[in-house]
Design a protein that fits this description.
The structure is a homotetramer of 367-residue chains.
Chain A: H1 2-18, E1 33-35, E2 52-54, E3 57-59, E4 63-65, H2 73-89, E5 92-94, H3 99-103, H4 109-117, E6 122-128, H5 129-133, H6 138-148, E7 152-156, H7 159-164, H8 175-185, E8 190-193, H9 201-209, E9 214-216, H10 225-235, H11 239-247, H12 255-263, E10 270-273, H13 279-287, E11 292-295, H14 297-305, H15 307-327, E12 341-343, H16 345-353, H17 359-363
Parallel strand pairs in A: 4-5, 4-11, 5-6, 6-7, 7-8, 8-9, 9-10, 10-11
Antiparallel strand pairs in A: 1-12, 2-3
Helix pairs in contact in A: 1-10, 2-4, 2-14, 2-15, 9-12, 10-11, 13-15, 14-15
């Protein structure tokens, strides 16, 4: 089984990088959100402090690289490159699902290289929520964390992907209870993350009550796993699966909506991910009260080229964020949430009809 | 007359399959409706039960094949193929208008083949409402039902088509009273269906009061009968009729709007049809409180190719529906109506201004 | 001066027919308005009565041909053709501005031909409101009316056209008072009409108070006079005027908005014109409470080809209107205003913010 | 340093004129605003008075040419040409940033030529707000004003441009206090202007309280300085800066929104600029309660060609404005604010959610 898993992981990387697997008829919602430019920033751009403390860890900027890969030789190089750069920049990093290495010890190195290259960066281990139903428990979680000396564990929820891929595991009965068991026993923070379909207010509430310490909403509008499975099915001549992939290509809660759904509902940090492509997007996510932001695709494409390219991509994002903060007269990440933003269009429509408040964002500090 | 009717039926099939007769400037409204993805489905996809009981009959999935055709040799093959597949899958099926066979006994076989191939499936006989004004009554209704040993009779209302086609019958005076006479006498359920222009709340109310047991709203956004008549007129060199077809191409109440108009007004099952093209559409219709959904065009195109193709099309729709239910954590068709949906855009605008409630759909089970 | 006027009129016809002089970035607003289809019309299409009485005259359908032309040989043929057809169909007709013939008696025939060919049809004489400021009075009005034995006089307001064309007269001081003087003396009804830029509620009120008996709102969304002047200026090498024409190409109040602005404000008949291109548009105008509708461009293009073509165009419009009425179960023109219409989009937005009621249209007869 | 500044200024002009540096995914908002045409203007177009008094100066029309350039030989010719035309037309003019000439006396002529050619026109001197933090004070302000015998000084705020350009100065700490010091000492009016990113209500309030006498909101939707820097970076092979320019290309508050934000907040004159391209735009800005309007780009392109071309561009704008006023029956610039305008779309959405009133504009003088 693991060989097949490895082949699948290789395909995932190839398809993500070479095919158009972005959302097609749905967007993140960030394009509906406008900042209110401040002609008098009143600050010195040089004094802007991008650092933030989340999960008791100090990040030099509110940015982590999302869980991408592991298990294959190429994955090993990618993890190594990303780790090297996040260590240098003081960011954080999640690794891809570690199941493959929990089951085959010889694959551990493709993950543990992350800690080797990033001795102090915030590293997030990763296992699938659905594995918890299929026999995994505290033991495997600890094994995954130990593998990279993780600062936290991310339990990923990927029902869409499991439902579309032929080899998918689609028994999610009791996943929440299993998560609760883990959070009760584990000292380090448990983060729950989606994988591109977003998290609704209702689920956010349940997760917080289950003892989860952070929620990565991973909304719709960026890379679509259904699209990835569409291309895999096309390649393997499986028209039925291909049609399924097509039908669910744009499924999910767009990122901006999901950030608000969860952040207006829970009191734990929200990590914003899903289609974040610029420092302006990062700033919008933070203004919507995300505590951290996370990207995968742009970093994956860069990491394949090397650490120089990776460093450029991440530095540009950080500089863009710094610029936004300068243009809003905001000198700390914590106070971005005090600057007004105007939520319009489909995003405002979704949030209002779902019962969330949108006016207060636009009037913050107006009076 | 019947020969001409047969020619017309042949043309209808040819044009529906080979020309673009879809709505052009109007859509079903389904694209305005979003599900709220559930990252924690909490169920086992394998345990999802798609079966439903409507009209006292148990369907293995809330899906029937809409009234398509009859009367010609090709129609006979199509009915046979569809019947074979719906029997196998445990679905239901409506036949095309049976008037032609009521008037010419030798054409009965093109309809009765449906029951031969589908001994247990839910079969719906079919006569035109306008025929009831032109002399038809309980006798003809019973004859139509007996022809296919029908489980129900659909009386179709097609004023648009009658108004556009040169040979159209456009006296609809007293149709409602005639329907009431039929429902009063008939034991089996009477369904009233539109043919692509939708049913408004006002008409739904009248139909329920007239004793109708189900309403197939057949809304706008899928196949346009005005478009079919446009192509017929073009072929026959009738510019006046062609212009009429063009002018009414997009006439009618879009499907999503019509489902809500009727389902918020009556207490009998609503059958959703008109432009349903995927299992996601089916799920949206059910979430809007339709009891069954119905498709014609995609099944017609498949049925011409054979039962294998037909089975694939219907199975894919069912799998897509099952996937949606999995991603919403819904394990029975009956509880889809408890999951939140976000109605936006033109559809929300139409419904609000017409006086229907749209917020409650978005907040179901939120608190 | 008159020669120049004649040349201008010839150019106007040529440009209107051969160039694209339709509104570009603005529409009539009719596309924002939806009828609520009635699957049970409950009537016999054959019994639909299209006749209506307005200004004490009985029209066989609520449709007149808008003021088009006069003064030139070609205008004479056009007026003759249109008159012949409206007489046959029992409609009405307005002639173009008669100033040219008031000043040059030999040109009278190009107008009086209308009455010769249409002995019983409702004919509307036509003079410019701005002429009333420049010396015209009751005498000229009566002369214009006598010329065609008119049933009514239309005083046209064309400030946009006058402002754009190099030879334009742009003193509109006291036009309203002059209109009041005419209405006080004249027995036959005075209609005031715009020429493609629409009439606002405020102006409608003033006109009603001035004794006007009908208002032709002539809204934006159809033929643009600024566009016509754009092409004239281009032809004559006048870049300054060409730029002016371009800048005002889409100026004015869209037709649907203007109908509501005026009909919710006055108690005299509203004539709807400006971009009406189908019987569906006609029905929408009537549902918005216009008493008559009027078209120019499509009839002009047809009239150049002859009476057959003209009769076809008008008959098709009437049949389309009849079809709409059938599909709404409405058997008289007067009761179209009782059938619900759904006003959405830009049109609803304009009307609401201007303080007009839009919900009641959608709920008429719902309860 | 000054040499480099001069090279930069030359590049700015070349890029502004030859590249597409207009906003791409954002518009001024003027397209969301509609006038309510007045079919009965009730005035004589000839009697329309375009003159207005602002800052104690009488302008023959509410139009000035925005701060463009200075310091280079070409800038000198441009300033000379514009000055000649604004003098002739009785308008006003701002010069580009004078820092370069404050520091190098031999460059003064490129600015002072403006006063030479425009002995009576309203001339506005120009220094950067950020220079006030870097050592400039009353002395330099007075020097700049004396250089052109200015009627007012504009302090420009350009944090976006400074943040994007490699040589940018991004310390804006204390700019507001420095402005307050200048206004306290200077007799002539101090205007504060943005440079294409707009001014928010909050900033407008602070500026008024700091003694500023006019605010040029310079909103987003016209020339983008980020775009200019994008092209400079591309030319100089600086991919990082190029990406930054791209990311902030459309940053800022659109012009229409900014006019309302500020005009509903302060009691000093608002100058509207940013993407104004026609007399219709000018009229919309005035209807939103701007006291003056200002353009740069179209005048720059014309001025390079000469005074004839420049005079044509400005005369056309004035004639377009006069036409709008005529079509609204408004005979003075001051009363444009009494005529109704309909604010729709994104602009209405932004303003409403930010807490500004939009209905009253549409109902002015309705009752």
């Amino acid at each position: 089984m693991a060989d097949e898993t490895i082949r699948r992981k290789e395909e995932h990387i190839r398809i993500s990088v070479n095919q158009n697997v972005q959302a097609r008829r749905v967007t993140t919602g960030f394009e509906d959100i406008y900042f209110v430019h401040k002609a008098l920033p009143g600050i010195n751009k040089r004094n802007i402090n991008l650092s933030t403390e989340v999960f008791g860890h100090s990040f030099s900027a509110p940015l982590i690289v999302g869980a991408i890969t592991g298990g294959t030789p190429e994955a090993s190089r990618i993890n190594s490159t990303i780790a090297e750069v996040v260590e240098e920049l003081g960011l954080g990093m999640g690794v891809g699902s570690q199941r493959v290495a929990i089951e085959r010890k010889e694959l551990e190195k493709s993950f543990s290289v992350a800690r080797k290259k990033a001795p102090t960066a915030f590293l997030i281990a990763n296992i699938g929520g659905v594995q918890l139903v299929n026999g995994y428990g505290l033991k495997e979680v600890k094994k995954a964390m130990k593998m990279i000396e993780a600062d936290a564990i991310a339990i990923h929820l990927n029902p869409l992907q499991e439902a579309i891929q032929p080899e998918g595991q689609t028994n999610f009965e009791g996943v929440l209870e299993k998560i609760r068991e883990i959070t009760a026993e584990l000292e380090k923070p448990v983060i729950v993350k989606e994988t591109g379909a977003g998290i609704a207010a209702e689920e956010g509430k349940k997760l917080e009550e289950a003892g989860v310490k952070g929620i990565d909403i991973s909304g719709t509008g960026g890379t679509s796993w259904a699209a990835v499975e569409y291309y895999r099915a096309r390649k393997h001549g499986k028209p039925f699966q291909r049609e399924l992939g097509e039908a669910f290509w744009d499924w999910g809660i767009p990122t901006a909506m999901s950030i608000v759904e969860v952040s207006q509902t829970v009191n734990i940090p929200v990590i914003a991910s899903g289609g974040i492509r610029s420092g302006v997007d990062i700033a919008k996510a933070l203004a919507l009260k995300a505590g951290l932001t996370s990207l995968s695709k742009p970093v994956l494409s860069a990491a394949i080229k090397g650490s120089n390219e990776t460093e450029k991509v991440l530095s540009l994002l950080i500089e863009e964020l710094r610029n936004v903060m300068f243009l809003l007269g905001v000198d700390s990440v914590q106070t971005i949430t005090e600057t007004p933003i105007v939520i319009t269009g489909k995003t405002a429509e979704w949030l209002s009809i779902r019962g969330f408040e949108v006016e207060s964002y636009a009037r913050r500090r107006r009076h």
